[in-house]
């Protein structure tokens, strides 16, 4: 009588193939995944190594900043010494805080401004044409003037600021200016010093640091928010042309100042 094949033996042979099939499927899946990953990766062109990388823009060194804060606190000896040397020829140690050039910047409090930008505004208001280069910054002219900066303090007004400059100027020349030298005479006529001060208003500009614009209102000056800008060459050319002995002979019509010829 023939023996029957046990069903358990057939079952175990079929089960032996199941793990093998699973492994094959796993490895095939891994192979497909790597193939797809390589296909997505960008091929490196053999010429890419020869193509120069885009050049980075070289940062332009910042302009020299004349920092009013450091001058007041005297924390920068080099800056203090430079400013004293610039003031010395004019004799304006007290009335002018900074003397700057057009290619420099000034810092007052937290505000930093390029003098070139301020001067461009002044020229535009005066009707001058400002020519800019392709980079958008106007080029300084040869022999351009230097500028005196006075930072407005609490309780100052424009008249006192001008008078202190004039007093500084005459002190430097050994002339003691009376505190009442700018007062009208008994008939109410302006003194010679008063006329000079009035005319000097045409030679200066008030700049609003916070609003970054030329200020037209000379009466309202707020502490540390405005500066008075003097064209040093123009102002001192006027003062040098006036002999103090003749100051009370000066005439001023609101626009022009002159010294009448001696009769």
Describe what you observe in this structure.
There is one protein chain. With 263 residues, the protein is α+β, with helices and mostly antiparallel strands. The protein has a domain at 65-129 and 145-258. Helix content is 36%, strand content 14%. It has helices spanning 7-40, 68-73, 77-87, 115-125, 158-172, 192-200, 232-240; strands spanning 65-67, 98-100, 105-108, 111-114, 147-151, 204-208, 213-215, 226-231, 251-252, 257-258. A five-stranded antiparallel beta sheet has the order 2-5-8-6-7. A hairpin with a 4-residue loop joins strand 6 (204-208) and strand 7 (213-215).
Lay out the secondary structure:
Elements lengths: L6 H34 L24 E3 H6 L3 H11 L10 E3 L4 E4 L2 E4 H11 L21 E5 L6 H15 L19 H9 L3 E5 L4 E3 L10 E6 H9 L10 E2 L4 E2 L5
User: Structural class, from helix and strand content?
Assistant: alpha+beta
- Number of H/I helices: 7
End-to-end separation in angstroms reads 165 Å
Please give the largest β-sheet: 5 strands, antiparallel
Strand content: 5-15%
Order of helices and strands: HEHHEEEHEHHEEEHEE
Number of strands: 10
Name the assembly state. single chain
Roughly how much helix do the residues carry, as a percent range? 25-40%
**Largest beta sheet: strand ordering:** 2-5-8-6-7
Can you give the mean pLDDT?
A: 77
Q: Overall 3D geometry? A: elongated
Low-confidence stretches: 1-12, 45-50, 55-61, 129-143
Measured on Cα atoms, how large is the radius of gyration?
40 Å
